Amino acid sequence: MLEAGFFYLFAGLAVLSGAGVVLVRNTMYSVLWLIFCFFNSAGLFFLLDAEFIGIVLILIYVGAVMVLFMFVIMMLEVNREKYKEMSLQYLPAGAMIAIILLIEFIGASASGVFNTETIAAVGHLGKDVNNTVEIGKILYTQYLLGFEIAAIILLVALVGAIVLTLRTRKDAKYQNMTKQVKTRREDRVRKVRLES
Amino acid sequence: MANATFPFPENLWIMIPEMIIAVMAMTLLLVDLFVAKDKKYLIAYATIASCVLAIVALLNIQSADGLMTFYGYFVYDPFAVFAKILILVATVFTVILSLDFMKDEENVGEYYCLILFAVLGMMLMASSNNFITFYLGLELMALSIYVLVAYQRDVLRSTEAALKYFILGSLSSGMLLYGVTFLYGVTTSFDFNAIGQALASTNASAHIAVMLGMLFVIAGMAFKVSVAPFHMWTPDTYEGAPTPVTAFMSVAPKVAGFVVFMRVLVDAMPAIQHDYTQVLIVLAGLTIIVGNVAAIAQRNIKRMLAYSTVGHVGFVLLGLIAANQEGYTGALMYLTIYLFMNMGVFAIIILMRRDGIQGELIDDFAGLSRVRPGYALAMGLLLFSLAGIPFLAGFWAKLLVIAAVIKAGHLYLGVLAIVFSVVGSFYYLRLIKYMYFDEERVTFNFIENNGMRFSVVVCALAVVVLGLYPDPVIAICKNALVGLI
């Protein structure tokens, strides 16, 4: 009973915040609604005993991806009026995708694959299994090599991004600390004899 | 599986070459910070040293054939060793070619580190016996090379080339992964051998998911080795990338890609050999035609060589179609010889950058023989070899794969290959005509150094020596296949 209550709470808030993302005018508020939506989805995952996916959703999507989104939006200059005109232009394509998705959802839920007997959670609920521990065990043993390579790939991505963006510009002024430290009094101070 | 215990990985020592490369790459990344801008060549020397060290380590790992480490996610066999040595040799050449070319660029230290990371990715690909290691190695290689292509950031075509390569490369990775999911869905394994056994035990050819998986996996791999019709990125990327990077891209990733290609075909797909052969025949025929015909129309030599690479890749595919020892030996031999031919040609192209001209147009080569007869002779030999003129190395490469494919019963494909090999020799010979029979139009003030001279001489000599006496290398290629088939 309690679980069902929480389910409807999280699901309802997720739908509400999803609608908020689309309906709000200000892009920054949209992002905040999306963050709220992610928190509620994470709550749904917790209810299904998939606590690892829930944590990852919050850590990665809220912690990293959405912060990146915010930075991007802050850097972009969003023209509200133009945005309003363009939204009508995208309506047919968007509506088509929405209708296709709706048909797919209805088809999937009517197919009988998702009835109460086959819900994966039913068998797992109440069992003493810790997803995070199990995933950790297998990730750092059997898939260790892949894990290490993935780490190196991330390093290359970092180095690559820095190499391609960091450049000394000719028209900008830079501080040369070695030069500053090595400067002696004679380089800067000049004794001028003033005729009195 | 969750209850299985995993002790500390055994046989870690068979990974020593990879460890050397990885540790050196990361160390150089740090050391670079303390090296003055006019001393960056030290980083390049350290890169060469780490490659040589890795080769020495590879040759000294004894009695480890077929050993695996990391719970079967990394395999060591003669096949992988052979491929890794080719990749490392190509890298040494690349670094030598880069010394002068890149010295005025910014962030030169990271350039060499990224090359080392790309090498690490390719070495992992060569040693992969499952799709996880394969894919991660592939991405490590691809990501490093995307950055290397864009290295001359202020040059518009370099950026454009990198962007095109990046977008199409991501698309091909997506296709590869999509195919892998199909194969995993049917066989519940990422391991090449396990997939092969699972496919053999069922009537795999009838299964549409297996066919889709095979098609997407082949398409993904075909993209990486620029097989037509997945070659669209090749000319633009080759033209835009800094020339040493082009040289690197045209050899090392091709070796790694083909090695993994062979492993997938031999280990994972023997049960559907009939089906994949049909796909490969179409791809190989198309590749040979497109590569050799499109190269004729090019005025930029890097674009021309890009199409020439496509053509040569088609010939290597012939070896894979034959799918027997002769065919695979031919493919390995082809890759070995292609390494020397291409590195030599690109060394000379880099030398042609002079007096503010790029030296990439065919016209820039006019009259080379009068001014620098030595380089003209080397270039002539390399081009003749690329064209497949008898008693130069390129001839044996072509002969082996064509003979293998004809013996395997695909006579028409052999004939097609011979015909288009003749068509292809046109554009190589045209360059020779420019060098030997035309008046020079611009001055030749080469900036030479001993490294460049060394690469040109070594490559030209290798082409001649292998042309006159190819048997030892053929024997080495044959031995490399011992673990595979």
**What structural category arises from helix and sheet content of chain B?**
mainly alpha
The mean pLDDT of chain A is 85
Query: Which spans of chain A of ≥5 residues are poorly predicted at pLDDT below 50?
Result: none
The SSE string of chain B, one letter per element, is HHEEHHHHHHHHHHHHHHHHH
Form type of chain B: globular
Distance N to C terminus of chain B: 30 Å
Helix content of chain B: over 70%
Largest interface: A-B, 24 and 35 residues
Distance between the termini of chain A: 99 Å
Largest sheet properties of chain B: 2 strands, antiparallel
Spatial extent as radius of gyration of chain A: 28 Å
State the helix count of chain A. Answer: 10
Q: Percent range for helical residues of chain A?
A: over 70%
Tally of DSSP β-strands of chain A:
0
List the uncertain runs of chain B. Answer: none
Assembly annotation:
heterodimer
Q: Give Rg of chain B in angstroms.
A: 22 Å
Strand content of chain A: under 5%
Global geometry of chain A: elongated
Mean pLDDT of chain B: 90
Descriptive key words:
heterodimer; A: 196 residues; mainly alpha; elongated; B: 485 residues; two-stranded antiparallel sheet; 2 strands
3D structure, described in words:
The complex is a heterodimer of chains A (196) and B (485). With 196 residues, chain A is mainly α. Chain A has helices at residues 2-23, 27-47, 51-75, 80-89, 91-110, 120-124, 131-139, 144-165, 177-182, 185-188. In chain A, α2 runs antiparallel to α3 (51-75). By secondary structure, chain B is mainly α. Chain B has helices spanning 16-31, 41-60, 78-101, 108-126, 131-149, 156-187, 192-201, 208-224, 233-240, 243-268, 273-296, 301-322, 325-351, 368-371, 373-387, 393-407, 411-437, 450-468, 471-480; strands spanning 67-69, 74-76. Chain B has a two-stranded antiparallel ribbon. In chain B, α3 (78-101) packs parallel to α13, α4 (108-126) packs antiparallel against α5 and α12 (301-322) runs antiparallel to α13 (325-351). The longest helix of chain B has 32 residues, at 156-187. Chain A binds chain B through residues 134, 137-138, 141-146, 149-150, 152-153, 155-157, 159-160, 162-164, 166-168, and chain B through 1-2, 4, 6, 9, 22, 26, 29, 70-71, 73-74, 106-107, 110-111, 113-114, 117, 120-121, 124, 132-133, 136-137, 139-140, 143-144, 146-147, 150-151, 153.
